[in-house]
Each structure stands twice: as C-alpha cells, then as structure tokens.
C-alpha cells in the first residue's frame, strides 16, 4: 500500500466479533478479509465478480466481496464461511452438502454455502429450477451442481417441516 494512499478506519462485526481495521479506501472486502483478518475461507477466484467464490453475507444479504469496497461495510455485519457452523457442530447446510456429495475439490464450496444460506431463508424459492437460477452466480468447475441443488432443497424441506410442525 502506497503511504500516500488515502485510508479509512472501518469498524464492522465479522462473524459476530467487532473488528476495526485501517485500510486503503480502494481495498476490497475480499482482500481485507483474507489479508488483514486472515479469514482465508473466502476464496479469490476470478476477482471480477463472475464466479461467486468470494461470496459472503453482509447484513444477511449475499455479496461478492471482490467487487465490494471494504469502506462500504462500516458498521455492518459480515458473515464469512468461518462463522458458519463449527467443527463437530456443522450447520445443517454444511451437513447437507456432505450428505449430497455437493462438493468435489471444495474451492467453490464456501461461496456456494454462503449463497445458499441466503437462499434457504427465501420462502419464495421453492423449486429446483428456482434454486438453480438463484445459484447461477456461483460456478463449480467440478460440476457438483446436482448435489448442491439437492442439498439446498433438503435443508429447505427440513426448515419447512419445522415451521409446520405441531407445537
């Protein structure tokens, strides 16, 4: 970073923890997460917003962190793959990805799961076709798309069953 570059102090909640970082105003959220906060689960794929490997949730909405300036996240809540589940206590979506063989090399998996997290909360997405459409911004070079769609549909069905279960 050039010493004459303008900087900004950004305070945000990342994976439930308040963090404050001073960064070049041109720095992307992806680079801030990976290089400054050492959260390397978010992947740098194309670095042009075309592959979805860098997907994270900001205030519950998925965004492409390679196209988002870190400065725009001031005061916001950021969730990365490191904040989803835990060893020995996986999130139901992570369990479904394993169960449905929705990953092969695993490079795209963090971005796929982050996009799917927003998707499973969307009650308007009810069909496999709608899931495929909504997930189309996340590319998988290995071709695990069928398993990804099945994992998402599985979790959506579980959530729907819980919502309609007698109390």
From TrEMBL:
Molecular function via GO: 2 iron, 2 sulfur cluster binding; metal ion binding; oxidoreductase activity, acting on the aldehyde or oxo group of donors
Family annotation (PROSITE patterns): 2FE2S_FER_1, 2FE2S_FER_2
Every 2Fe-2S ferredoxin-type domain range: 8-84
Keyword set, alphabetical order: 2Fe-2S, Iron, Iron-sulfur, Metal-binding, Oxidoreductase
Keyword Metal-binding: yes
Record bears the keyword Iron: yes
Protein name: (2Fe-2S)-binding protein
Protein species of origin: Phreatobacter cathodiphilus
């Amino acid at each position: 970073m050039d010493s004459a570059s303008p900087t900004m102090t950004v305070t945000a909640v990342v994976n439930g923890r308040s963090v404050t970082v001073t960064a070049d105003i041109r720095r992307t959220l992806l680079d801030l997460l990976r290089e400054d906060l050492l959260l390397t689960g978010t992947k740098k794929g194309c670095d042009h917003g075309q592959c979805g490997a860098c997907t994270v949730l900001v205030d519950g909405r998925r965004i492409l962190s390679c196209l988002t300036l870190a400065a725009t996240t001031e005061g916001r809540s950021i969730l990365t793959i490191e904040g989803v589940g835990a060893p020995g206590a996986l999130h139901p979506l992570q369990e479904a990805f394993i169960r449905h063989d929705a990953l092969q090399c695993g490079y795209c998996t963090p971005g796929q799961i982050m996009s799917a997290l927003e998707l499973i909360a969307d009650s308007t997405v009810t069909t496999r076709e709608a899931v495929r459409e909504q997930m189309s911004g996340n590319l998988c070079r290995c071709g695990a798309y069928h398993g990804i769609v099945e994992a998402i549909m599985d979790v959506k069905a579980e959530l729907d069953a819980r919502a309609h279960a007698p109390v």
